[in-house]
């Protein structure tokens, strides 16, 4: 079992705003409802507004946010339509084709030239230095008692009463749009700020309505507890 640290662990959390086809982004709905503290000496800093689904606002906001908050762990939340589960993502890439041709909500792209200027000699692929396998093992245990609501969204309806083992997962498919972009950006900045890429990205289903969003909040709280538990165990050398 991971030791309980006496010091407060600081976790930064962000969510995204609306984009094409998703007028009410559940990633921000979840982030905005999280408490500022959790048991076991965990302090949450929630970015006070949804991040625009736009490259240049993200690349200007995230580095400044990390430098100001000095988080131990950063957690960014996004949504995937059509998924029936929650997942934390392992890797992200710089200068993927999506950034340069898939326009954001401002109608802008992020070119390879811009990426080279911002990220310099950073690797093409970055992976979080959090032990996501250990995190997901604990996350699955923590969410065993959380009942999927009989909700409005197709994913939730299809999942209610289904296989509990698939509710929360480890994934390596962050995509090629703003989810990948913010994850790569955050890993770079956390590496500079903390010397460790202690960043996580969670994809949530397209949750609809108050009950489904509250369900997402519960799942997210258990993810944060799992992230902190694993992070503390690694810093203590494990037990």
Automatic annotation (TrEMBL):
It comes from the Eukaryota. GO terms for molecular function: pyroglutamyl-peptidase activity. The keyword Hydrolase applies. GO terms for cellular component: cytosol. It holds the Pfam family Peptidase_C15. Keywords: Cytoplasm, Hydrolase, Protease, Thiol protease. GO terms for biological process: proteolysis. PANTHER family: PROTEASE FAMILY C15 PYROGLUTAMYL-PEPTIDASE I-RELATED (PTHR23402), PYROGLUTAMYL-PEPTIDASE I (PTHR23402:SF1). Belongs to the peptidase C15 family. This is Peptidase C15, pyroglutamyl peptidase I-like protein. It comes from Bimuria novae-zelandiae CBS 107.79. The lineage of its organism: Eukaryota, Fungi, Dikarya, Ascomycota, Pezizomycotina.
């Amino acid at each position: 079992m991971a030791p309980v640290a006496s010091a407060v662990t600081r976790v930064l959390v962000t969510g995204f705003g609306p984009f094409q086809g998703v007028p009410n982004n559940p990633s921000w709905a979840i982030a905005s409802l999280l408490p500022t503290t959790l048991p076991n000496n965990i302090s949450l800093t929630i970015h006070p507004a949804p991040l625009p689904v736009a490259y240049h606002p993200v690349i200007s906001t995230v580095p400044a946010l990390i430098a100001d908050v000095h988080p131990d762990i950063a957690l960014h939340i996004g949504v995937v339509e059509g998924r029936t589960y929650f997942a934390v993502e392992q890797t992200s890439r710089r200068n993927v084709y999506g950034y340069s041709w898939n326009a954001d909500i401002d109608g802008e792209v992020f070119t390879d030239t811009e990426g080279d200027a911002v990220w310099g000699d950073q690797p093409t692929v970055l992976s979080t230095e959090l032990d996501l396998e250990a995190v997901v093992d604990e996350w699955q245990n923590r969410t065993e008692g959380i009942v999927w609501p009989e909700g409005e969204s197709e994913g939730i309806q299809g999942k209610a009463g289904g296989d509990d083992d698939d509710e929360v997962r480890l994934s390596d498919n962050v995509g090629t749009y703003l989810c990948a972009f913010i994850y790569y950006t955050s890993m770079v900045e956390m590496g500079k700020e903390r010397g460790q890429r202690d960043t996580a990205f969670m994809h949530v289903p397209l949750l609809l309505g108050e009950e489904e969003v509250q369900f997402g909040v519960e799942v997210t709280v258990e993810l944060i507890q799992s992230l902190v538990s694993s992070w503390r165990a690694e810093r203590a050398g494990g037990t």
